[in-house]
Amino acid sequence: MKLKISTFKEPKHTAVVTCVCWNNTEDVFSCSDDHKLLKWNLINNECMIVATFAEDFFPTSMNLFPKTGQSGVKHQHDVILISTADGKFHIVNHNGRIEKSVVAHQGACLTAQWSPDGAGLLTGGEDGFVKIWSRNGLLRSSVVQSDVPCFNAKWSPDSGAILYTKGNCLVIKHLNSNSKVKKWKAHEGLILCVAWNPNYNLIISGGEDGYAKIWDTFGQQVSISVKHDQPLTSVTWSPTGNMFVLGSYNLIRLCDLNGRSYCLDRPSTGSIYSIAWSSDGTQLAAACANCHVLFAHIIEREYTWRSYACKQITRKMITIKNIITDQSDQLDYPDRVIQIALGFNHLVIATVKQCFIHKLTSWNTPVTFDLKEGSISMILLAERCICVVERAGVSVYSYMGRLLASPRIPRPETIGQATISLGPDTLAVIDHTDRKLIQVFDLPTGLIVRSSTDNTVTKLTHKMTVSCIALSQTGPLNERQLALLDYNRDLYVVTVKETKPKMFKLGPQVLGITWSSETELLVGLRANSVVAWCCPRAATQPDWLTLTTVSKDISDLGRNPSIMNIEDGVVCVRRGNGSLLRISLASFPEKLLKHIAANMWDDALQLCRTVEDETLWACLAVLAWQYNQLPVAEEAFALIHQYHQVNYIQHLRSLNLARQEQIQERCNRYRLTWSVDDLPNNQLEHILVDDDRKLLYCYVPKVACTNWKRLLMTLGGKWNGTDVLAIPGHIAHSPGMFRNLSSVPKEERDEMLENYNKMIIVRNPFERLLSAYRNKLEIDTPTATYFRNRLGRRIIKAFRDNPSNESLELGDDVTFREFALFLTTKTEELADMVNNEHWQPITNLCHPCLIKYTLVGKYETLLDDALLALHTINATDKVQFPRLSHTSGTSEKLSKYFAQLELPLISKLYKLYKYDFRIFDYHLDNIVGFDLG
């Protein structure tokens, strides 16, 4: 894409041209320091003097009344607003007569602009004031009063806020709300020019520092240009908001939405003080310091679709080529080409007066129809229809050129590519008056003319402002899906024709989206990856959605990449530097979706069996279930379960290996490694032996050891039945129920330690300690009576001042503090109970630094670790670890109980269990707020 630049041979102005604006697509107004207002006609290359103003009339800006197409303001069309250096603004009619002059500022009035809705105007001046006036020039308010000149000010697209410059800062002030004023430093030097994108709600600024920067409305920088040699004196967005142009000294640059440069020209113009776009977005006019008005036309626009390539080579000529067959042709048109669209086996060309619809199979015999107005901003294509967006309105045509619908959409000139989407039978538009609202219009499927009042409209409301929408291109109307991005960059999908449409979130941080034209494959672009949602309908089930999503990381996308299209599972992405990247992402899923769309379920099933991919099986399962293909769904879900379990087991195995390595590393650090042979046999009695499953299990009281013993009893045939929880706890703990390692001869023991799987389950030491206290001393349990009689009475006698006779007799009210004192105070009277297994450190019971455990589980992830253990010993088909309906809630009570202890006492307890804390990676943050280790 490039600019074809032209100027008249001799300048028609005799002084610096300061401002230009377009009257229509062929007429331009210009105003200069020679006090003249000129009108240029680009068709016959004529220039006429509209008016000659007084000698003290030095214009600074010019703005034509907005042509919104609203009937109530037609009389205002062709009314020009001009600000001048004497502090005034002037309302001038199209004949050049000044209808009204108003003294607005002390010093120069540097900028003046009509509001987008035509209800008023704003001015900014050298005196630092920004003022809002009525359409007839009556002062409404002085919204800004500053001590520095305001070089530029702009309305927001909805006329609800203003953007103005203050030195090197940009400021956004909302007019009709209590929103806080947003101000940020944007440049190192003065900001000379700004523009507000009406379609994407972006701001661009140019300054003395030579940089152009793009911002969002929160003041976050989106893009920055290269440094230019001279200050930037003008900048403006195209009407559709997908391009902008910069002007500087002997320089004009055309860029895309993200700041990538299309072309750079260096005409000998001096500084370019003002640039204006034509309403169709294909032409430019620029006010130059050398007394010329520069005109530019966009040419060499390129479009591709499958094997076809189209390129505009002149104002009225394009080339079309089939790359595969090498067939090509040049197509000439009677008028200037405004817009081009290529896709769905058609080439659509819009000129100033007509629209030409070419079939790609016979492009020399187009269908034509006349346009309402020669200012088309956009053409959208779908499988069965065309949407033409003009300033006068939005129209939908068939490929035979028949008008199908004219949906009533206010202010169509504000519609951008991201805010409108066309499907084969549906049109969706973001409401510019409330960007949380999306209007979805039904389109006729036959060749029937529809009026603007009989379109069925569905209104969808999102919880946040919507920035981008896209309709799916396949399937029946009642299954039409709409994908949307909000300003948080969250992606949602909704089926628009449901009775109560519900939005489902697909993912966060998505920069751009597009649907496949042949299937319901949705592709999104993130900062460093491309994601394909192969079955967006699976969003109703998060697990299904995860299984049907494909992602590929890409490290060199650059800043502000954009997604172009997807074809046969290959995604085309434009990098931040402008180059194209094609990524094979979802070839097989797209082929599967094509089979399903054609009702070829046997072919879809055969494809999944051949490729053997989990994503394919997941897509097949979800869609087969939704289309009531139950035999296919049954097979698919069965295979998904196998894939999912294998992958999940692999994930658990990697976590388990990391725990083993962590234990060994910390044992080495604390020099706790020696030989098992150094241990007396009685210290190995906690390690149970299961020869059938070649398993050594070190049971730790208060760490689910009862259930593990029950499970081993069931596996070993020591209990009739499969209900693990039916086994009484006292039977599971009965002496002699299990063989332990202390009873095994040394030679056999060494062989077991070498070849058997060795399992341990650990727990936060203080949580385990609290569980033991509550179970044995505080609450009524079958074993509490024994511990209260044997230990409780003795603790109360030793650590309580003036105990009651009842407490000494029953021992049933031992406090947690007294229990902590018992553990940390070495007394001969209680030595026999201090090392009880229920509160003895795990490192003393199971010796993890001497025995290299191959299965290290944690109480916090008990079910997952149990799944891995049972899978390792090949027992998943025989028994399952029991899932409890409720937990004891010990972890939630930690803070409450430990709040009874002073910090020195907690520190003493920590020293008792310090190796359990350190080796098994536990901390005290949730108890004391910091770690004592």
Can you tag this structure with a few keywords?
single chain; 933 residues; alpha+beta; Methylamine Dehydrogenase, Chain H; 3 domains; 60 strands; elongated
Description:
Pfam families: Beta-prop_IFT80_2nd, Sulfotransfer_2, TPR_IFT80_172, WD40. It is found in: Cell projection, Cilium. One of its GO terms (molecular function) is sulfotransferase activity. InterPro entries: Beta-prop_IFT80_2nd (IPR056456), Sulfotransferase (IPR005331), TPR_IFT80_172_dom (IPR056157), WD40/YVTN_repeat-like_dom_sf (IPR015943), WD40_repeat_dom_sf (IPR036322), WD40_rpt (IPR001680). Keywords: Cell projection, Cilium, WD repeat. With 933 residues, this protein is of the alpha+beta class. The chain has three domains: 298 residues, 7 Propeller (Methylamine Dehydrogenase, Chain H), CATH 2.130.10; 242 residues, YVTN repeat-like/Quinoprotein amine dehydrogenase (Methylamine Dehydrogenase, Chain H); 270 residues, no CATH class. The protein has 19 helices and 60 strands. The strands form 15 sheets. The protein has a five-stranded mixed β-sheet. Helix 3 runs antiparallel to helix 4. About 2% of the residues have low confidence.
Give the SSE map:
Elements: E1 2-6, E2 17-22, E3 27-32, E4 36-41, E5 46-52, E6 59-64, E7 80-84, E8 88-92, E9 98-103, E10 109-114, E11 120-125, E12 129-134, E13 139-145, E14 153-155, E15 161-166, E16 169-174, E17 182-185, E18 191-196, E19 203-207, E20 212-215, E21 221-224, E22 234-237, E23 243-248, E24 251-256, E25 261-265, E26 272-277, E27 283-288, E28 293-299, E29 302-305, E30 308-312, E31 317-322, E32 327-332, E33 337-343, E34 346-351, E35 354-359, E36 362-370, E37 376-381, E38 386-390, E39 393-397, E40 403-405, E41 420-422, E42 426-430, E43 437-442, E44 457-461, E45 466-471, E46 481-486, E47 491-495, E48 504-507, E49 512-515, E50 522-525, E51 529-533, H1 542-547, E52 549-553, E53 562-567, E54 570-574, E55 580-584, H2 587-597, H3 601-611, H4 614-626, H5 630-669, E56 687-690, E57 695-698, H6 705-715, H7 729-732, E58 739-740, H8 746-755, E59 757-762, H9 765-778, H10 784-799, H11 805-810, H12 816-824, H13 831-834, H14 842-846, E60 855-858, H15 862-872, H16 890-898, H17 903-912, H18 914-919, H19 925-928
Parallel strand pairs: 57-59, 59-60
Antiparallel strand pairs: 1-28, 2-3, 3-4, 4-5, 6-7, 7-8, 8-9, 10-11, 11-12, 12-13, 14-15, 15-16, 16-17, 18-19, 19-20, 20-21, 22-23, 23-24, 24-25, 26-27, 27-28, 29-30, 30-31, 31-32, 33-34, 34-35, 35-36, 37-38, 38-39, 39-40, 41-42, 42-43, 43-44, 45-46, 46-47, 47-48, 49-50, 50-51, 51-52, 53-54, ...
